[in-house]
Amino acid sequence: MKKIKLLVAALALTTIAPLASAEVSVTGTLISDYVFRGVSQTDSSPAIQLGLDYEHESGFFAGAWASNVDFEDDADAEIDFFAGYFGEINDMFSYDVMYNYYTYQGYSSADDSDYGEFLFNAYIDSFTLGLGYASDFVNSGDSAQYISVAYDIELPSEYALTLQAGYTSGDAYKNEEYLDYSVTVAKTFYDFDFTAAVINTDIDDSDIADFRFVLGVSRTF
After folding, report:
1. What is the pLDDT of residue 71?
2. Which of 36, 70, 138, 145, CA to CA, is 20 to 30 A from 177?
3. Helix (H, G, I), strand (E, B) or coil at 188
4. CA-to-CA separations, 110 to 73, 106, 122, in angstroms, rounded
5. Dihedral angle at the C-alpha atoms of 10, 106, 147, 180, nearest 10 degrees?
6. pTM for the full model?
7. Which helix H or strand E contains 46, and what residues bound it?
8. Domain boundaries, the chain
């Protein structure tokens, strides 16, 4: 099943399906820098991340994801909760819709930045088109949108190359809209997934949004 890694329309279920028709997985990740939409969330420092995913054969999925963060304030951890639906039209086209709720642990109530975001991904052959909308970005009262496109290329020896670009805009970013882009190489060795990425944005004079090289390794159980 294709779905958002990073992270996701929530579904109301009236019954709980047997576990035999569902899959539960846990993924642990070590990464040299937690970068979200081109911007470091750990002040250019490493992160330890843990994800819990539930996937049902109907297409419903849900889960939680956590990482340390460093915003030079009280927040020291991010915990996200998500639910959504994955659908497949044919071998060439599939999609998912989801709702992701971002929470930041350690903030005082006055500085609460938790917020929700609706996301949609369309998978067309090797292309992925992503759309995100948050009506109350970081509890600011202003909206934010994100649009991205990615292209996956299969390389020899089972390496994978992903070219990606995204654009962040909205009232929360008025006159501060920006582009992010990345190139990522991935390879699986002995059930461990390794990634190496170069990431950059067009944000000027920012130590957390400039060119960076990021290494990561993850394992799913």
Report:
1. 85
2. 70
3. strand
4. 13, 11, 37
5. -150
6. 0.88
7. none
8. 19-220
Q: Which amino acid is at 29?
A: T
For β-strands 47-56 and 39-40, DSSP reports them as: unpaired
Q: What is the pLDDT of residues 111-154, one digit of tens each?
A: 688 999 999 999 999 999 999 999 999 999 999 999 999 999 99
Instruction: Measure the CA–CA gap between 157 and 59, rounded to whole angstroms.
Output: 31
pLDDT at 13: 32
CATH number of 19-220: 2.40.160.40
In the numeric block, which tokens belong to residue 105?
């642990």
Model pLDDT for residues 23-63, shown as the tens digit of each residue: 999 999 999 999 999 999 999 999 999 999 999 999 999 99
DSSP characters over 104-155: EET--GGG---EEEEEEEEEETTEEEEEEEETTGGGSS--EEEEEEEEEEE-
Reported residue count of the chain is 221
| Tokens matching residue 32 | 């040299």
| Residues 78/48, Cβ–Cβ less than 8 Å | no
CB 104 within 8 A of CB 116: no
Average pLDDT score, the chain: 90
> Closest Cα to residue 34, out of 91, 111, 102, 132?
102
The predicted pLDDT at position 1 comes to 44
Dihedral, CA of residue 153, residue 212, residue 130 and residue 151, to nearest 10: -10
